[in-house]
Design brief:
There is one protein chain. With about 400 residues, the chain is an alpha+beta fold. Helices cover about 50% and strands about 15% of the residues. The protein has three domains: about 5-115, Acyl-CoA dehydrogenase/oxidase, N-terminal domain (Butyryl-Coa Dehydrogenase, subunit A, domain 1, Orthogonal Bundle); about 120-230, Butyryl-CoA Dehydrogenase, subunit A, domain 2 (Beta Barrel), CATH 2.40.110.10; about 235-380, Butyryl-CoA Dehydrogenase, subunit A, domain 3, CATH 1.20.140.10. The chain contains eleven helices and ten strands. The two termini are about 35 Å apart.
């Protein structure tokens, strides 16, 4: 399904598989029960350079492409794991490599490449501003030496596990007639030094380190602005598009896991004297899930190709959103098929179906709801009147 892989990419995928042998079902099951961060998994992959995969070689990184990152995240999920910590660091690495000043890159990228720092947290969403970025109320006010940030963020991942946080705040109110997205600015916040940040963990339906943040007069140096002040929305497109493509890759990995597990189980499970896989009631849903997987996979790779060819953000956005939509719908359908194939055993925690099902459900609503993806396609691809 994937485009031809280079020798280096084949080694990359096989290395992921070898590393995942040390993190089998029992490992993820235990983390889920304790709601714990996968520290051993993250450290193990960092030791092999995976944290530095998308960072430029000039700063000690591997210079990996979005395709490389997709292959890694897909394989982790296809092996029964959850790659969220690296998902966050990867798309934020693309952002810094593209828009951060040279001074900011030199200050942080080499340490990130060496695994001395982690950058897995992105503070965008607010209680009254989820997908509607124009309603962001977190402000960054100019001071003598930088900016003072005040506001509140919600559903922000891995704050306690990160050293660096990318933050979106409003530095100006759009002028009359200007785009409502103008005036947004991106900041790199060093959590080791920042004062005035408080957080509360939000417990979710699966094991996720998710927080609500309270930003109480947080001082950020002028040099920590990412890109241009007030043009944060334009820069965000170069975060949100690869993020959706990476999410699609994780969903494709999940779908592979559900389908492979179910097909093997259907061959072994005997009811009424024959394998249940001989029944069309089992065959058809699995074949349907596989067909949808093939389609989602092709769209994912097309989106990655557009991003890597530096196509316009709107063209990339249409493909990236479609990839995320199709892959997340596919993984959720495959999860339900897996539950049906396994019957009562699917409910048993030791089978891992219910855990992976809870995990993959997230991607229908995050980082963007699938209904909003459909609205995006309707408005920007089909040219239909806006519904909001």
């Amino acid at each position: 399904m994937a485009p031809p892989r280079s020798d280096a990419q084949r080694v990359l995928v096989s290395t992921v598989g070898r590393l995942m042998d040390a993190f089998g079902p029992e490992y993820w099951r235990d983390l889920d029960a304790r709601e714990a961060y996968p520290e051993a998994f993250v450290s193990g992959f960092e030791d092999q350079g995976f944290g530095a995969l998308p960072l430029p070689e000039a700063y000690g990184g591997a210079g990996g492409t979005l395709t490389d990152a997709c292959l890694v995240l897909e394989e982790i999920h296809a092996r029964g794991g959850n790659a969220q910590p690296f998902h966050g660091q990867y798309y934020l690495s693309f952002l810094l490599a593209r828009f951060a000043s040279e001074a900011l890159r030199r200050a942080y990228l080499p340490a990130l490449a060496r695994g001395e720092l982690r950058m897995q947290s992105f503070a965008l969403t607010e209680p009254d501003a989820g997908s509607d970025l124009t309603r962001i109320t977190t402000t960054a006010e100019r001071t003598g030496e930088g900016y003072r940030v005040r506001g509140r963020k919600v559903f922000i991942s891995r704050v306690e596990q990160s050293d660096l946080l990318v933050l979106v705040a409003r530095t100006a109110t759009p002028a009359a007639g200007a785009r409502p997205t103008e005036g947004l600015t991106l900041f790199l916040v060093d959590l080791r030094e920042a004062k005035g940040i408080e957080w509360t963990r939000i417990r979710t339906m699966f094991n996720s380190q998710t927080y609500e943040l309270f930003l109480n007069d947080v001082d950020v140096p002028t040099g920590n602005v990412i890109g241009e002040e007030g043009r944060g929305f334009d820069h965000l497109l170069h975060v949100l598009n690869p993020e959706r493509i990476l999410i699609a890759s994780e969903c494709i990995g999940d779908a592979r896991w559900f389908i492979d597990r179910s097909a093997e189980y259907a061959k072994r499970r005997v009811v009424f004297g024959r394998p249940i896989g001989s029944n069309q009631g089992i065959q058809f849903p699995l074949a349907d899930a596989y067909a949808r997987l093939v389609a989602a996979d092709l769209v994912r790779w097309d989106a990655a190709r557009l991003y890597e060819s530096d196509a316009g953000p709107r063209e990339v956005g249409a493909a990236a959103n479609l990839a995320k939509y199709l892959a997340s719908e596919c993984s959720w359908r495959a999860a339900n098929v897996a539950m049906d194939v396994h019957g009562g055993y699917g409910m048993a925690r030791d089978m891992d179906i219910e855990r992976k099902m809870r995990e993959t459900r997230l991607y229908q609503v995050a980082p963007i709801s699938n209904n909003l993806v459909l609205a995006h396609v309707a408005h920007h691809v089909l040219g239909l009147p806006r519904s909001y």
